[in-house]
Design brief:
This protein has ten helices and two strands, in the order E-H-H-H-H-H-H-E-H-H-H-H. By secondary structure, it is mainly α. The chain has a single domain, classed as Alpha Horseshoe (Serine Threonine Protein Phosphatase 5, Tetratricopeptide repeat). A two-stranded antiparallel ribbon has the order 1-2. It is globular. The two termini are about 30 Å apart. Bound molecules: magnesium ion (MG).
């Protein structure tokens, strides 16, 4: 296990997230069918398959870039391949994480926490959602807060990522009784209560995948020649 976030760790994380989305694609779609337009599973799966394809197709120059550039590539890929609101929102998450991460080859836990905080602020700026609106922010904001607290306590990367995923899970579960105030689900008013939010669910999957894979010391994908 590594105590820094590297390109190899990022690649392992993104692959784990793509696998989780593919595995839970029907569940995400069912959640979205209850309070939205039943496309969240297929949208996220399409986007993450495109990201995995990008990871395998990086040129030697691109494969040598820093953590920030890789995150920005992920963000741009999601913006251009994921439909609905999720594309711009997940795109903002990764683009703003990438900007904050800069061009270092690896990030400390504290630097990673700063990048995640910036990404979550980017999602909030894009979607104008607050905590409790029954959106992905309900998983992401507590996750970012837990990560920053873990970094401030000097926890290892693996422990910090575990706490982050736990906070995301709690936030996701807390969306069930809420009445949606943003996004398509808000058109349902009171009828949106009693359903877990699909965006918060995919955001939990993202943080859970980080806990599983981001601290791994997998080498980055071999560039194609
Ligand atoms: Mg939808």
């Amino acid at each position: 296990m590594r105590d820094t976030v590297t390109q190899g760790g990022l690649t392992a994380w993104l692959r784990a997230f793509a696998a989780a989305v593919a595995r839970d694609r029907e569940e995400l779609t069912d959640l979205d069918a209850a309070i939205g337009d039943a496309d969240h599973g297929s949208n996220m799966d399409r986007g993450m398959q495109a990201v995995v394809g990008k990871l395998g197709g990086l040129s030697p120059d691109e494969a040598g870039v820093g953590v920030g550039a890789l995150l920005k590539t992920v963000g741009m890929t999601l913006v251009s391949t994921v439909g609905g609101a999720a594309g711009p929102l997940y795109g903002s998450l990764f683009l703003d994480m990438g900007k904050a991460a800069g061009e270092d080859a690896e990030l400390t836990v504290a630097q990673w926490a700063t990048a995640v905080e910036a990404g979550v602020r980017g999602v909030q700026a894009r979607g104008k959602a607050e905590l409790g609106d029954k959106t992905m922010i309900d998983a992401l904001a507590p996750a970012a807060e837990a990560l920053s607290a873990a970094a401030a306590c000097g926890l290892s990367l693996a422990d910090a990522l575990r706490r982050t995923a736990e906070a995301a899970a709690q936030g996701m579960k807390a969306t069930t009784p809420l009445v949606a105030r943003k996004g398509r689900a808000s058109y349902l008013g009171e009828r949106s209560a009693g359903h877990q939010d699909p965006g918060a669910t995919s955001s939990w999957l993202l943080m859970q995948a980080a806990a599983e894979a981001l601290a791994s010391d997998a080498p980055p994908d071999r560039p194609r020649t």
